[in-house]
Write a structure and sequence with these properties.
The chain is of the alpha+beta class. The chain has 11 helices and 11 strands. Strand 2 and strand 3 form a beta hairpin.
Amino acid sequence: MTGEIELPALDGTNPLGFLAALGVLDVLHRAGLPATLRWTDDLVPVALLGGAAGPDALIALLDADRERWTGSAALAGPPGSRLDDAKPQPAVLRHWAAAVLDGDRAGADLFAALVSEGAVDGNGNGKPTHLHFTAGQQKFLVMARQLAARVTGDRLAEALFGPWREDSPLPSLSWSSQGERVYALRAFNPSTDKRLGVPGADWLALLGLVFFPTCVDTRRDGELVLRTSGCDRAWKHSALRWPLWTVPLDRDTTWSLVGDSSVVGERRTVTPAVLAARGVLRILQAPIRRSDQGGYGSFGGASVLVEGT
């Protein structure tokens, strides 16, 4: 397809690369551009972006969009109650939701991907998305605000075009399956390591969460539980599933595909032939693992669930 830009650093088999590509697509869509996204059919599938004028213009657009988020209620919380994490008490959560809904659609979409009213954890606080991997001294919203304030155009270019240097002390949201720190393979406990990352990719992946909204579901016993699109319902041992496709899809069509329960649900029903007819290469799954101490999360390596034929 003419007019496409290859984003060679966004590996579709890595959750961080996939989420970052979705974030780029969402930014271009909100800018009113006829943006599309697809993936190469290679051993390492990478993103192909349509609708951007060129690499320099793309980076400038992404950087300008980043700046608009620095005052967003979706990342700050309600007026007078600045939040550090996406796990507030229900009363604060209601005020947070009201503040976000008084703003623009982009903030509302991101808020819906972070938390839903009604579901609470064991302490009675709001339950965040299954893709909330921070705990302890790592506060999700603090980290998101730091990324919004300090990511630069150079870091965005690194995220899209590589190579990923993984040398930045800016916050890492732990979504790269390449960054899993496994104690069994180390001579010492890696939990005290300072995680260095690719902040441009983390920032774009944060925006990509809008394709994986949360909702509240009711169990048979009447308890309200959080559901995150594309994820298993369980919290301690969950998984994220996502498709890769070869036909250019706009933002709304991508949203529909990525959230299609027949494709990414726990009980998938789609057949390989149907996937192929829809231009889908394969469905991938990465396990979500959480530590016993504090609930720090990480992704394991992705595996192929279904191949389109």
